[in-house]
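Sequence of Peptidase M20 (Youngiibacter fragilis 232.1).
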Amino acid sequence: MVDIGVMERAYELKEEMIENRRFFHRNPETGFDLPVTTGRVREILESMGYEVKKVGKSGLSATVGKPGRTFLIRGDMDALPMAEETELEYRSENGCMHACGHDIHTSALLGAARILREREYELNGTVKLMFQPCEEMVMGARDMVENGILEDPKVDAAMALHVVHKPLGTVGYSKGSACASSDVFTITITGKGAHGAASYLGVDPINVAVHMHLALQVLNSRETHPDDMVVLTIGMISGGAAANIIPDTVVMKGTIRTMNSDTREFMKGRLLDISESVAKTFRADCRVEFLSEGVPPMVNDEALTEDVTGYIDDLLGEGTTYEIPRMTGSEDFSVVSEKVPSLLLWVGTGSEDEGYPYGVHNPKVTFNEDAIHKMAAIYADCAIRWLEKND
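Predicted 3D structure, token representation.
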């Protein structure tokens, strides 16, 4: 069944969604500090007749429909702290940039909100809208979950869309584990400073850091099964100020990514074991700290994936959806997937062959805005049809 009404209405709202997107693009904000963004989202939703609730530090939620099963759809709102280098007329000039397409996600979800409000009579249950902050720092979803986004009414299933530089309008999905967990760590190694000419009088934390870095690579190559994807990366080592001085401390920073919650806990434990053991071997001390709680792997529910990809192929044409490999990047919608059956999909917003050569997180990245109304239609149609099936 092709729901022509939803798709046609989304197309009619295309210019409205693009206008909203350009406002958000011109005014990017980061983390939890989103006063302009959330103010505009609230204003638009309230103009449609929604009652908007603040959830957590700066998340927003609204519902439409009637009592019954509840289907959640999410759009993230935050940008990146990087200067934009595009020639767009509506480019940002405040030192931040929507280089990951969250302005598109937010605008598409607002478009879906209007369609769902107009078709509320069709809903065999409730659709909950989740406007999320701080995805880039993988803290926003957890903050909203801990502050009740999945309750009152209780959420039964959830879906999120994310832009990707693939052919316009295509929709990629992964079965099972879709994105890796993410745990960011800092290791502070404390030795004893000394003159470089008398190194035996000190405890060299640079030497400790070098041995520690090499020892940690064993976790990738010797302590996990080759089929169980694991990536441990040290991205920063900092210490010392002069060629002839052994410093007191060295700081190392890195990330751990896995596709399995048990492997994730194993890796975190072994990071601690190896770091402390290597430091002790060379008479140094170390402290291992993790940034926040991190996020688990993103797991796509099998039944929900089968249903929703079917709905999308009905809506946009057979073959619109296609299976993609799991990715080592992270998405904090995984915190929702840990609690309720969930699905994360990747919507094509223009490939290199279509004139979009730059990927996300690039200061020159641009997106084809013709994807926005398609995403709004996907959000709305999938919510309507899932509630219809699961009434």
